Amino acid sequence: MQSDSLRLHYLLHSADLIEDRLHHQLAPLGIKPRQARILDALARMSRASQVELARAFDVSPASMSTMTARLVAAGFITREVDRHDIRSNTLRLSKKGSDLLDQIRAAWRAIDDVIENAIGPEKARELAEITLELRDALGGKTPGSASEQPPDDV
């Protein structure tokens, strides 16, 4: 190892390389990595406003609006008037988006395989545990996890 001061560089470079491979895996599906994560989150959330999604992904509402507009245009999600506030919209996964989830998850598994083939199964497992620990320690959460879901209708 050249220098301890370069550790962040190794992490960032590895993340870029992995994301590039994921981009190529998802390209035939017509989506990008973050869009795939949004579809996955909506599958867990059932429905969400753009503000809720923006909060869950730690992006601005304007950025989320741009991403969700593309997903609506592609037919992967639907936008409906919120039943409780007609001034707001609710986003839901469409059938087309739901049908895509298996392919998205297969692409994610393919990238897990790339990592495992590159560093071996034990190191791949350790890497997953360490990156999860880091994400949690930095305040990250799985978008759409139980703690972030909107309450169900009563």
Automatic annotation (TrEMBL):
InterPro entries attached to this UniProt entry: HTH_MarR-typ, MarR/SlyA-like, WH-like_DNA-bd_sf, WH_DNA-bd_sf
PROSITE patterns for the chain: HTH_MARR_2
UniProt GO BP: response to stress
GO molecular function, one term: DNA-binding transcription factor activity
Pfam families membership: MarR_2
SUPFAM superfamilies: Winged helix' DNA-binding domain
Every HTH marR-type domain range: 1-136
Annotated PANTHER family: HTH-TYPE TRANSCRIPTIONAL REPRESSOR YETL, TRANSCRIPTIONAL REGULATOR, MARR FAMILY
Designated name of the protein: Winged helix-turn-helix transcriptional regulator
Organism: Devosia litorisediminis
